[in-house]
Design goal:
heterodimer; A: mainly alpha; B: alpha+beta; Immunoglobulin-like; 17% strand
């Protein structure tokens, strides 16, 4: 390989060019067998793994919820002991918020981003693999704790000092602290990857005002994560120090501060809540218009609203702390911010409504999920607006009203769009359609079950039922509401089961989809289903937000996108790097090949945490050495990437 | 912030012009709003559960502070319900407004159009939303200003210590001989503001009497001060509202609002030592001091433990074990015999007592009036 090879101008060809596809297949394919499976850095493989793993956690968290809904169905029930209940509700929250809701969106984004952007892969493929393996390891780490009876038991926000060793002597909170730090590394590297990919990997011509809204959603969430996660990692690290080395960060007996935990946690926690809904809202913004047969109304407004939500989202964390006795003047600012943050949400809601109202809706299963999301989002939004009003929140907070709110947010704005997105993109993932009829049963069961189960929680909250109670006395006015909630949650579970049945059956027997079964406008539909390892034979050139609809929508610019012909990059694994704003072709990027280094790095990093947990310092030390070795393997200069001296000298 | 500082701030606020302005706005706007809210909601309110049927509900209020918040609660709830109905209507209407199309066969193409921009939906929708949201902020801040400080100087100061999983209640006084402690039941004079100092004996709890006031967290290392005022005599249920461990679910208490005269009478009575027991109860007192006095106190006796509730006037209380049991004949005995069976995880362990000792202690406790 020579310098000239890096300074060449790529040739241009059509995607039908003889032999080109075969050549690329040879370059990009993973090794067959288990070795290839463990070493692949293909974003599509990683994306699917993320989604499948996240759904496994969704099911685990759901089963936990069903068990404690039985406990709460009637007053004074004795199915669970208080300790069992407390671990179950904590692990349920931890699972759904950290192991399902965030990762499932990372999965979609990992799979879809390069396809939406017309790219060959994410900017940092090995980092992508590392992100997944660390997520898997952190999830297993946390669930091993639960299986051993040491699941976290202080609620997902883990307030001190109940989480301190003095009140919580077992290893439960050590598991939680270390597991969350490990998971934080995964999320951080994943987020960095999205930001870099956004800046560098868009197809030529895809200026930032032409990217799909999902890109804006995930980009915004990722940028937020980079700033938010250090707060949580720090908090958990300080807590672990307090518990294991008798430091006093949170120890009020020795001058520590209980509220320090809450500030650090919610500085992370509230942005995180937006991070686990904005990409899902992006998926709706991209999917819904396909079924309305028109482009999204107000693209610019929706993209800006996405960013605005996140910016404001960093200024509202204290609304989780309205009752802590902070001065009213400072609280009133956070109250106002928490109410005003509804404005960008309103932009989204009216954009989606207008898209339906001015389009020609096509009733399909994904449309039903996306359209119903608008109402569920509104319900979750207005209950958030109510809790944003400080004096009202002092009554609402820590009651089932807030439980209802968080479930309308997380199920309404995450699960419904995600399931809709699976219906929408399953054909691309697998080449087969999900069954439409079963899909409708699936939708209506989930929709009815969800509202039956979770809407009454608003009322039990208004009637004063506190959250996180393992039982309640009769005569409080909550009996029948809880019974309905339990029934509804089981109906909802049946709906999720129907979804899984549909996925399993359709994966084998579904109708063959073809490249673009929904006649959708974006680039992922311009390649085969499922896409080849290299995504696109030639790199597309983009002239609008909907390259595949251009022949039917008049574009003011008059230019046309090209998906059938474009740059040929076939000298090894290559991608095109473009400029940050206008996406002018800038550089040929040499992409790294498959590698075991990410897996080894993830395993040895996890071993460090096992060593820290068990105080086996030799284990932590050895694992740290292995981690260093894995980094060396990872970074070892490769000729194929132009990193060795002899290449540079030529 | 100590008590005087709080009151200083209260006095000062009264004289600042913005607070006066807020009060004027309140008089002009909020009073009328209360009336109109009430009349608008009249058809709804008949369906509300009475306090007795849902003792922790906060859709009915019985205290000055809760009253002031309630109108705002109904206001934002009304807005919320209206928004959901409007959005749901628009969604259903826009789906059925145009004839729906069935799913296309794979590979076939449906028309794609850009019929009109639709941007007006966003401008109008967001414009209306923003106006309502700004109005909500103004109303919120007004209510906040009204509820931060008591309407007049509180005459009674009570220190509440939240512990896993019960509430210690101490009535403070400049005269140390007039300080006394009780548990899980807070007596207050009705119609007067009462100042509460909230402190924690262990982890974070949250003090909540929905009929009288919203929540205030009880946080170790700091003293949170709040005020309460009950409109009239009555018994109001309270509950710990911040998760605090195993028995968080069963950490309730009662606020007993009495006429000021009754309250003074009760307070005077609490300051007395219980009458000297006789007969079997006298033997029970010795057993109690031996087995129970390490944790519990009874005024005027050798029992002076501080870990558990002060039992000086136990028989005047409505409940046992922080609202878990009604304080009646078999329950007291059962509780002493098997606290862990009734409230798993409670700090009280079953004392090792013969049945004769248990009966004597029971007899003694029944004399603590």
């Amino acid at each position: 390989m020579t310098i000239a090879d890096y300074e060449r101008a790529p040739s241009v060809a059509t995607r039908d060019e003889a032999g080109l596809a075969d050549e690329l297949q040879e370059i990009w394919k993973a090794e067959p067998g288990i070795g290839g499976w463990l070493s692949t850095v293909d974003h599509k493989q990683i994306g699917i793994r993320y989604i499948v793993t996240a759904f496994a956690f969704l099911i685990a968290g759901g089963v936990e919820a069903l068990i404690f809904r039985l406990q709460l169905a009637r007053p004074n029930e004795h199915l669970l002991t208080p300790e069992q209940y407390n671990q179950l509700f904590t692990v349920h929250g931890m699972t759904m918020i950290f192991l399902y809701a965030g990762p499932v969106l990372s999965g979609f984004s990992n799979y879809l981003w390069p396809l939406l952007l017309g790219a060959r892969d994410m900017a940092l493929p090995r980092l992508n693999a590392l992100s997944y393996w660390l997520y898997l390891c952190a999830g297993v780490f946390l669930y091993v704790a639960f299986a051993m009876g040491f699941g976290p038991n202080d609620g997902w926000f883990n307030y001190v000092p109940y989480a301190a060793r003095a009140y919580n002597g077992g290893p439960n909170i050590d598991f939680y602290s270390l597991g969350m730090i490990l998971l934080g590394i995964s999320t951080t590297v994943g987020s960095i990857n999205f930001v870099v990919t956004f800046l560098r990997m868009r197809a030529p011509g895809m200026s930032i005002n032409r990217v799909p809204i999902l890109i804006w959603g995930t980009l915004t969430a990722s940028a937020a994560n980079i700033f938010a996660i250090p707060a949580a990692s720090l908090a958990f690290f300080l807590l672990w120090m307090d518990r294991n080395f008798a430091t006093h960060f949170f120890d009020t007996q020795s001058g520590g501060q209980a509220l320090l935990w809450q500030h650090l946690f919610w500085m992370f926690g509230h942005p995180w809540v937006y991070a686990i809904v904005l990409p899902a809202m992006g998926m709706v913004s991209d999917g819904l218009p396909v079924f309305c047969r028109r482009p999204l109304v107000g693209y610019t407004a929706v993209a800006l609203a996405t960013v605005a939500t996140m910016v404001l989202g960093f200024g509202v964390w204290v609304h989780h702390m309205f009752a802590t006795g902070l001065p009213s003047i400072s609280l009133s600012f956070f109250s106002a911010a928490s109410i005003i943050i509804a404005v960008p949400s309103a932009v989204g809601v009216f954009a989606w409504l207008a898209t339906i109202a001015t389009g020609k809706p096509v009733f399909t299963a994904p449309f039903l999920f996306f359209a119903s999301f608008i109402v569920l989002f509104t319900i979750g939004g207005v209950s958030g607006y109510m809790t944003g009003s400080l004096p009202v929140d002092l009554q609402l907070t820590d009651t089932y009203f807030v439980v209802a709110h968080i479930h309308y947010v997380l199920i309404g704005i995450n699960v419904f769009p995600v399931v809709g997105a699976v219906y929408f993109w399953f054909p691309k993932f697998t080449g087969r359609m999900l069954d439409e009829k079963l899909g409708r049963w699936n939708f209506w069961t989930m929709f009815v079950g969800f509202n039956l189960g979770f809407f009454p929680m608003h009322i039990s909250g208004l009637l004063g039922m506190p959250r996180r109670v393992y039982t309640y006395a009769e005569g409080m006015g909550w009996d029948w509401l809880n019974m309905i909630t339990t029934i509804g949650s089981f109906v909802f579970a049946v709906g999720v089961l129907l979804f899984i049945v549909n996925v399993v059956v359709s994966y084998r027997r579904g109708r063959i989809a073809g490249d673009n079964p929904w006649d959708a406008p974006t680039l992922e539909w311009a390649t085969s289903s499922p896409p080849p390892p290299y995504n696109f034979v030639v790199i597309p050139t983009v002239a609008s937000r909907h390259p595949l609809w251009e022949d039917r929508l008049e574009e003011p610019e008059g230019e046309k996108s090209h998906v059938g012909a474009g740059l040929v990059l076939d000298h090894g694994r290559e991608a095109i790097g473009t400029t940050a704003l206008d996406a002018q072709p800038d550089i040929i990027l040499k992409m790294p090949g498959d590698s075991y280094a990410p897996l080894l790095l993830a395993l040895s990093a996890t071993a460090i945490f096992v060593g820290l947990l068990t105080h086996l310092w030799w284990l932590a030390g050895m694992a740290a050495v292995c981690t260093g070795a894995a980094v060396l393997v990872w970074l070892w200069p490769e000729t194929a990437l132009g990193e060795t001296a002899e290449t540079a000298d030529v | 912030m100590d008590r005087t500082a709080l009151l200083d701030v209260a006095e000062e606020r009264k004289h600042t012009s913005w607070a006066l302005g807020a009060r004027a706005v309140h008089l002009l706007f909020s009073k009328q709003k209360c009336i109109s809210t009430a009349s608008v909601l009249a058809p709804v309110t008949w369906a509300l559960p009475a306090h007795a049927q849902a003792p922790l509900n906060y859709l009915t209020s019985h205290g000055t502070k809760a009253d002031r918040v309630l109108a705002l609660t109904w206001g934002v709830m009304f807005v919320s319900v209206a928004v959901v109905l409007v959005i749901a209507f628009l969604l259903v209407w826009s789906i059925w407004w145009r004839p729906g199309l069935s799913a296309p066969a794979p590979g076939s193409k449906l028309a794609v159009e850009r019929p009109q921009s639709g941007l007006n939906w966003i401008w109008i929708g967001v414009g209306i939303s923003s106006t309502v949201l700004l109005a909500s902020i103004v109303w919120t801040v007004i209510v906040l200003a009204q509820t931060t400080n008591p309407p007049s100087r509180p005459g009674v100061t009570i220190e509440i210590t939240a512990r896993q999983w019960w509430w210690q209640v101490r009535y403070l006084s400049d005269d140390s001989s007039r300080i006394f402690a009780t548990a899980n039941e807070i007596h207050i004079p009705a119609g007067q503001p009462v100042l509460l100092h909230l402190i924690s004996g262990d982890v974070i709890h949250s003090f909540w009497v929905p009929a009288l006031s919203g929540k205030t967290d009880v946080i170790p290392g700091q003293t949170n001060e709040i005020w309460l005022q009950a409109n009239g005599p009555g018994i109001y249920r309270g509950q710990c509202a911040e998760y605090c461990g195993l028995e968080h679910a069963r950490m309730a208490f009662l606020v007993v609002a009495q006429t000021p005269a009754d309250f003074q009478h009760w307070r005077q009575n609490q300051l007395q030592s219980p009458s000297q027991p006789a007969g079997i109860a006298e033997l029970g007192m010795a057993d109690f001091n031996t087995h129970c006095g390490g944790c519990h106190a009874v005024r005027g006796t050798d029992a002076n433990g501080v870990l558990g509730p002060d039992l000086s006037h136990l028989m005047q209380r409505h409940t046992l074990a922080a609202g878990v049991l009604t304080n009646d004949n078999p329950n007291l005995l059962n509780w002493i015999r098997d606290p862990q069976g009734i409230k798993p995880g409670a700090m009280m362990q079953a004392p090792e007592l013969s049945s004769a000792e248990l009966a004597r202690i029971d007899a003694y406790l029944k004399t603590l009036r």
